[in-house]
Amino acid sequence: MCLQQPAVFCNMVFDWPVLYWNAKYLSEVLDGRTIRFRMGMKKRDAAPQFETKCSYVEATLEEFLAWTSGQPTCVSRPFSCYDSSKYWAYADYKYIARLFEDKTEIFKDIMWSDFGFPGRNGKESTLWIGSAGANTPCHLDSYGCNLVLQIQGRKRWHLFPPSNTTFLYPTRIPYEESSIFSKVNVVNPDLKHYPRFTKAQAHVVTLNPGQVLFVPRHWWHYVESVDPITVSINSWIELDADHKARVEEAITRTLVCAIKSAENPSPVDAWLNPTEVEATSHEINLQYLNGAMSAYLEYQKVTVSEDRDLSTHDTEKEASSCKRRKIQVNPKPEDYKSGTHEAGITVVKAKKLEKIPFGVHLIPVLPQSQEASSVGAGAAESDSRDRLSKNEEGHFGKSCCTGKQSVMSNDCKTLAAQTDSDSTANSSQMAISTNDLLDCLVNPQVVSLVAGLLLERERV
């Protein structure tokens, strides 16, 4: 948890049973169960292809495989309206605990405990299956950090540090709890509208089967499938910093829902992401905000108490012994803290850990501008190819993740038909739209300041 930059683990999961979870195997396990696929255009556009701009298909994995291999439409019927040379399909955010709720024994195929998180397995993981070109728009996750295992095919990750937030033009429209989107299509940027993006520092890596990518807290990322079929699994790791992040997310939800719900409905553009079940009422949002604040303040009390006990204990240890303290090798789950947390074990460990052991088994994802970044990515790819050469097809033979939902109700579809006020006849002459206003009101820096003020009021 001392890592403050993305890194690829190359030799951690060689004995995990989940490595056999290619699309064909999953098709057999699911045995005809339909899942939801997001359909998008392969054609590059200057604007990000948000989920609100996509269409959706309910299909089996068997039908998906038939479609990607170009079989007749009678075999891949749900995809019959989509030319596989022009469209991609993505079964994203599929919570394994729900997908395999009748096959719970499969959870143990995933062993995040090897990374120091005892008891963590497939129950706290999410499955992603896509075709070539399938992508997730550039965004950052408000909660936790992220571990991503590539199982089949390759995915290319474009990552940007938290310090680049201003250059990525953050927006909360479309709205989704825990996701802050970028207005920029980072692989085809419109520099006329978003000139500050030229200052952004991309860290790019192609993740190969058998490799695990660590994405630190609040790192922006755009992810795209490179090969005809890709399968990956991730787990969002909770952090102490999430307590305040929940307060900030509650503030954002309250403001976005209040302002967008008051706006004249328009079918032109959706503001609620399909992963959100509904636009909650103002009363419910305030209850959520008060609950998040109470939980944070209670956590602060416990933390202060623990810090005092730890400080007293350390003072007594120093007085009784001059022996050098050792770094805790097998910490308890609760000992894993955010790298920026001001109190507790992480800071002590960070000071003691002189150097992260980067090498052939742990490769840092460096900025694209640095020549070493291509060397690092190449090393990751070549190292993986050496170990996976026996598999010719390129693959092996948020729960409390982030609050994302995989199904959108009919009522939500109606609510999601609301958009910018400048799209209506009455506001066509206005220079500032509702979304422009929201981009300022719920800017991450502004929301953080508001959260601090609200929490200070409660402390007083």
TrEMBL record:
<feature type="compositionally biased region" description="Basic and acidic residues">
    <location>
        <begin position="382"/>
        <end position="395"/>
    </location>
</feature>
<dbReference type="Pfam" id="PF13621">
    <property type="entry name" value="Cupin_8"/>
</dbReference>
<dbReference type="GO" id="GO:0005737">
    <property type="term" value="C:cytoplasm"/>
</dbReference>
<dbReference type="InterPro" id="IPR041667">
    <property type="entry name" value="Cupin_8"/>
</dbReference>
<keyword id="KW-0963">Cytoplasm</keyword>
<feature type="compositionally biased region" description="Low complexity">
    <location>
        <begin position="371"/>
        <end position="381"/>
    </location>
</feature>
<dbReference type="InterPro" id="IPR013296">
    <property type="entry name" value="HSPB1-associated_protein_1"/>
</dbReference>
<feature type="domain" description="JmjC">
    <location>
        <begin position="88"/>
        <end position="252"/>
    </location>
</feature>
<comment type="function">
    <text>May play a role in cellular stress response.</text>
</comment>
<feature type="region of interest" description="Disordered">
    <location>
        <begin position="307"/>
        <end position="326"/>
    </location>
</feature>
<feature type="compositionally biased region" description="Basic and acidic residues">
    <location>
        <begin position="307"/>
        <end position="321"/>
    </location>
</feature>
<feature type="region of interest" description="Disordered">
    <location>
        <begin position="371"/>
        <end position="395"/>
    </location>
</feature>
<protein>
    <submittedName>
        <fullName>HSPB1 associated protein 1</fullName>
    </submittedName>
</protein>
<dbReference type="InterPro" id="IPR003347">
    <property type="entry name" value="JmjC_dom"/>
</dbReference>
